[in-house]
Specification:
The structure holds 2 protein chains of 2 kinds. Chain A is an alpha/beta fold. Chain A has a single domain, classed as Rossmann fold (3-Layer(aba) Sandwich), CATH 3.40.50. Chain A is about 40% helix and about 30% strand. In chain A, the strands form 2 sheets. A 6-stranded mixed beta sheet of chain A has the order 6-7-8-3-9-10, with helices on both faces. A 4-stranded antiparallel beta sheet of chain A has the order 2-1-4-5, with helices on one face. Chain A is globular, with a radius of gyration of 17 Å. Chain B has 11 helices and 4 strands, in the order ααααβββααααβααα. In chain B, the strands form 2 sheets. A two-stranded antiparallel ribbon of chain B has the order 1-4. A two-stranded antiparallel sheet of chain B has the order 2-3. In chain B, a hairpin with a 2-residue loop joins β2 and β3. In chain B, α1 runs antiparallel to α10, α5 runs antiparallel to α8 and α9 packs parallel to α11. The radius of gyration of chain B is 19 Å and the shape is globular. Chain B starts with a helix and ends in a 14-residue tail after the last helix. Classes of the chains: A alpha/beta, B mainly alpha. The interface between A and B is medium-sized, with 25 and 19 residues. Chain B: Its main location: membrane. Chain B: It is found in: Cell membrane. Chain B: GO terms for molecular function: L-isoleucine transmembrane transporter activity; L-leucine transmembrane transporter activity; L-phenylalanine transmembrane transporter activity; L-valine transmembrane transporter activity. Chain B: This is Amino acid/amide ABC transporter membrane protein 1 (HAAT family). Chain B: InterPro entries: ABC_transp_permease (IPR001851), BCAA_transport_permease (IPR052157).
């Protein structure tokens, strides 16, 4: 059974239909990517999955149950965690406080402490800056905070919205390594990216979204080698 | 010299009360970007309800010492005001959460008028004396005098504010409040129930307001149904002076405004050759408000406003 099952999802924003009836599913343990140009409806899709936007039509089943009436703040307790577009770091909280916000719903203080230390091991840069306000960090460091914070939420399904946006290639490399590592630990991931090549290279499967519709889907390796994807997104 | 010291002492008393009230304005502003103009009315209700409860307690013929009666009444009035703060947000502001900014602002002013009139219905239009249960023994400080009640007011205001700042900076609830004020959508994703945090903010602010209301009434030995307006406006000025949205700013702004106002009242006669008397002291608070808005709208410790966009 799929961990996430989306059927005929339609979302409208103030008269504009951003998502026009999409189907997608993600199985336990998969790393799936959703690629597409700017404005294709990728972010709207993610925001709908965590209840920030209400669908106009269609159903979303997570872990076998419809999510229709779940309030936004309950998704994280069910293991559905999103790292939003633009990272969503709390600029006037310190790095450590940001990480602790990820564990907001948890009460197992000793486990939280050791997981924060683990995040510091993964990102030594964050350890150096643990008492610094997150707003003073570079974009790459903020993305590290956002990823670390998401890890502290103990996700079952992790939604990543454009983690590479605005970052230097070497930082992107590092972020994608972490995404792969989290995936190998058994976390199911839906990765939304404009950087199609990189995203497909680390993913099991992929969906291509164009103006609110899914136009292609399949194994990541197939999509990587397909002419249409190559032309539209890989610039070759 | 003794006038100067005397006015500084008076200013500290007044200022610590302003600071308590200003915290209520600034906390709500920090989390919702809203000036809750009904906050002054909560302060007034704190004073009035406390006086009514004192009346009931003394009517019961209990032979408790005066200060104990007042404290007991205050402890009962605080939850009343907290409930009021909760209801104000729930009924008046929450339905307007996504409305244009002018709508909640006008609602706040309207609510303030409604609450004032409710108070008039309950307590009438006259000044109500604060029962003489508290000692007002003067203490001599280098030629100036301060009463033991005033010393108690300043010390307890500072203790309460320190407790609040500790809560906001060091506890999980405080962290969630700060996160919500910076980015409510993302705080929601972390599992924070934003509505609960907003309610908690109103409730806390109202609790501080209730305490401040009783301090005002005890210090001036009286309360009345329209006292909330002026003191609310001055505390709002204090919050703006310190930098609205900034808790430390509210404390600094409150105390500073109290001192400025007292010094102004003390010297205005000399400054104008006796043309204006100390009853013109209110002009100082609002002169400060205008100057701050013109020259430093973000206040002394204010945050860069653009960041909130």
């Amino acid at each position: 059974m799929s961990l996430l099952e989306v059927k005929n999802l339609k979302v409208a924003y103030g008269g504009i239909q951003a998502v026009k009836g999409i189907d997608l599913h993600i199985d336990q343990g998969e790393l799936v990517t959703l690629i597409g140009a700017n404005g294709a409806g990728k972010t709207t899709t993610l925001r709908t999955l965590v209840g920030m936007v209400k669908p106009a039509e269609g159903t979303i089943q997570y872990d076998g149950k419809p999510t229709g009436k779940t309030p936004v703040f309950d998704f994280v307790r069910k293991g559905l965690v999103m790292v939003p577009e633009g990272r969503g770091v709390f600029g006037r909280l310190t790095v450590e406080e940001n990480l602790r916000m990820g564990a907001y719903y948890r009460n197992d203080e000793s486990a939280i402490r050791s997981e924060i230390d683990y995040v510091y091991e993964l990102f030594p840069r964050l350890k150096e800056r643990m008492t610094q306000l997150a707003g003073t960090l570079s974009g790459g460091e903020q993305q590290m905070v956002a990823m670390g914070r998401a890890m502290l939420s103990k996700p079952k399904l992790l939604l990543l919205d454009e983690p590479s946006m605005g970052l230097a290639p070497i930082i992107v490399q590092k972020i994608f390594e972490i995404v792969q590592m989290i995936s190998k630990q058994g976390v199911t991931i839906l990765l939304v990216e404009q950087n199609a090549k990189l995203a497909l290279e680390i993913s099991d499967r992929g969906y291509v979204m164009e103006s609110g519709r899914i136009t292609m889907s399949g194994a990541a390796s197939e999509l990587l080698s397909s002419d249409a994807v190559q032309k539209a997104y890989l610039g070759e | 010299m003794d006038i100067f010291l005397q006015q500084i002492l008076n200013g500290l008393v007044l200022g610590s009360i302003y600071a308590l009230i200003a915290l209520g304005y600034t906390m709500v502003y920090g989390i919702m970007g809203l000036i809750n103009f009904a906050h002054g009315e909560v302060v007034m209700f704190g004073a009035m309800v406390t006086i009514s409860i004192i009346g009931m307690l003394t009517g019961m013929g209990l032979s408790l010492p005066g200060p104990v009666v007042v404290l007991l009444a205050l402890m009962l009035a605080i939850p009343v005001c907290m409930l009021m703060g909760f209801a104000i947000e729930r009924i008046a502001y929450r339905p307007l959460r996504n409305a244009p900014r002018l709508a909640p602002l006008i609602t706040a002013i309207g609510l303030s008028i409604v609450l004032q009139n409710v108070a008039i219905l309950i307590w009438g239009r006259n000044y109500i004396p604060f029962p003489p249960l508290l000692p007002h023994d003067p203490i001599n400080v280098l030629g100036a005098s301060i009463t033991d009640l005033q010393v108690f007011i300043v010390i307890s205001a500072i203790a309460i504010m320190a407790g609040l700042l500790f809560m906001v900076e060091k506890t999980k609830l405080g962290r969630a409040m700060r996160a919500t004020s910076q980015n409510p959508a993302v705080a929601g994703l972390m599992g924070v129930n934003v509505n609960t945090i907003i309610s908690a903010t109103f409730v806390l602010g109202a609790g501080l307001g209730a305490v401040a209301g009783v301090m005002v009434a005890a210090n001036y030995d009286q309360a009345h149904s329209h006292m909330g307006f002026l003191i609310g406006l001055k505390a709002f000025t204090a919050a703006v002076l310190g930098g609205i949205g900034n808790l430390g700013g509210a404390v600094v702004g409150g105390i500073l405004l109290g001192v400025i106002e007292s010094l102004g009242a003390g010297y205005i006669g000399d400054l104008t050759g006796g043309f204006l008397g100390s009853h013109y002291q209110d002009i100082f608070a609002f002169a400060v408000l205008i100057l701050v808005l013109v020259f430093r709208p973000s206040g002394l410790l204010g945050e860069r406003v653009a960041e909130r966009a």
